[in-house]
Design brief:
The protein is an alpha/beta fold. The chain is built from 10 helices and 5 strands; from the N terminus they run E-H-E-H-H-H-E-H-H-H-E-H-H-E-H. Helix 1 packs across helix 10. The protein binds adenosine-5'-diphosphate and thymidine-5'-diphosphate.
Length: 211
Amino acid sequence: MKKNFFIAFEGIDGSGKSTQVKLLTEKLTEAGLNVYTTCEPTEGPIGKIIRDIFSHRMEADHRTIAGLFVADRLDHLLNKTNGILKKLEEGFTVITDRYYFSSYAYQSPHMDLNWVIEANSLSAKLLRPDLNIYIDISPEMSIDRLNKGRSSIELYETLENLQNVRDKYFEVIELLKEEEKVLITDGDHSPETISNEIWNKISDDFIEAKT
Ligand code: ADP
Ligand code: TYD
């Protein structure tokens, strides 16, 4: 086996990230790796404030939200108890449901993309994903899946906003193609098909010669 690695899942709401995090974790565990799964916004104190804003229990300006995500991400990396850097040091392969590409895509419709990239540069310097996996679905499919699975709609979950976010994902994947590894996968396929595509890429790139 190669050394442990760090994978970030990305995509608009309802794209199937949680589903794929689970399926990839199963495959990696079966291959003998110790896997730690995590997500953003985090379960920590800054993540809690963000969740309160997204579920309309609190109100905040988009710029404040952008700053909170920067802080939540740094805590996600640096937290001494269960931070990603600590988990990697302990030998875990870490999979996160969202990382800084989410900020690039979700915050930049409201503010300057370069500011968002710059504000997240500390995180990028601390840890770049060995692979970002972007699961692509249309905003219509996103709304459809959200309506089926949720009783309330969160901040940013409108058709127009999700269209903007999806456009921004593609814009920033292109912009950062020299420094970021991104696998784009079609989220309209079955969960098993998507999972197999992801597994083919990961086993080729990170897991030593299969027999
Ligand atoms: P996310 O974590 O990106 O919000 P989820 O994995 O929670 O997405 O999936 C959102 C909804 O869509 C869930 O009801 C899930 O069962 C369903 N779903 C996930 N992947 C697929 C897929 N490939 N095809 C159809 N439905 C899917
Ligand atoms: P999440 O809990 O992953 O929602 P979902 O499972 O529906 O994809 O994320 C909550 C919301 O937070 C989601 O709408 C995306 C948003 N978000 C940002 O705006 N910026 C960020 O940096 C991150 C990590 C998430």
